[in-house]
Amino acid sequence: ALDAWLKQNVEGYAGPLTMNQFKGGQSNPTYQLVTPTKKYVLRKKPGGKLLPSAHAVDREYKVISALYPSGFPVARAYALCTDENVVGAMFYVMEMVEGRILWDGALPDCSKEERRAIYEHKIATLAKLHTTDYEKIGLGDFGKPGNYFARQIDRWSKQYKLSETDNIPKMNRLIEWLPETIPPGERVSVVHGDYRLDNMVLHATEPRVIAVLDWELSTLGDPLGDFTYYLMNWVMPSDGRAGLGGRDVAALGIPTIEEVVKQYSDATGRTGIDQLDWYFAYNAFRLACILQGIAGRVRDGTAASAHAKDMIKRIGPLSDAAYMYAERAGLK
User: Fold this and answer.
1) d(CA 182, CA 175)
2) Do the beta carbons of residue 288 and residue 161 sit within 8 Å?
3) pLDDT by residue (tens digit) across 114-164?
4) CA–CA separation, 129 and 73 (whole Å)
5) What global pTM score does this model have?
């Protein structure tokens, strides 16, 4: 059924077709489609009981289809299938972008010069997303402009409550405090929602981003939500993943947090970013809510990855971190 659909809907497609599933990924199962002349990637909704508004592969398809012609680095999208009879769920097909996907934020296999160049290109890429005219590329209806943080806090609080497995008093207090203390001065842009090292394909030999992946959480919103989430890498503990906390970033050649804020501010026409502690509290809270959603799906038997149980162990530490930053930002 998939082969027949691809023949009808994907320009240039010719079988025979073989499929491999990518490992990891907590949300939308992702497959490599291999043909004699080309490789593609298929992302589909998972099966089973799903939270409202989650796993919207049609939104992913819409945003990358709009960004690709603008020159922003994303995979080319070929087609969206809303007929669940083909593979059992909605899915879309995009090109397979070949390059490097790195996981360790310290970039141990890179030279000092290459580390700086990679980080600077990542920041420039995010700034490019946030300065793209979303109305001009057809994304004027991709989200509700305004009140981004209020809507995000409300959304994640509801999903947290729907997935709750343990009562965490600090999370309950943050659900009350965060919406009352949102910083002023919102701008609106496309936001990625999960901008991090392993959601990017880097060029095989050059220090540049050639495709940003995993647009599941993208919408219109305040770009500082995206940027401060990315900035969390500088304060999250270094554990072989993206976190750089406790590392001597200058010795590694990686820009310091101050340099990152300056580069991003210069590229987006800001004088700086105030209230970073509030944004860090919000981002740690949001991550705890996302992981709680995974915990709920483990409980309900629909989590897709063996890593899910390890991720659940991070909910407590993340809620502690969120509360600590909230106290720094004025929570009594």
Assistant:
1) 12
2) no
3) 999 999 999 999 999 999 999 999 999 999 878 999 999 999 999 999 998
4) 9
5) 0.90
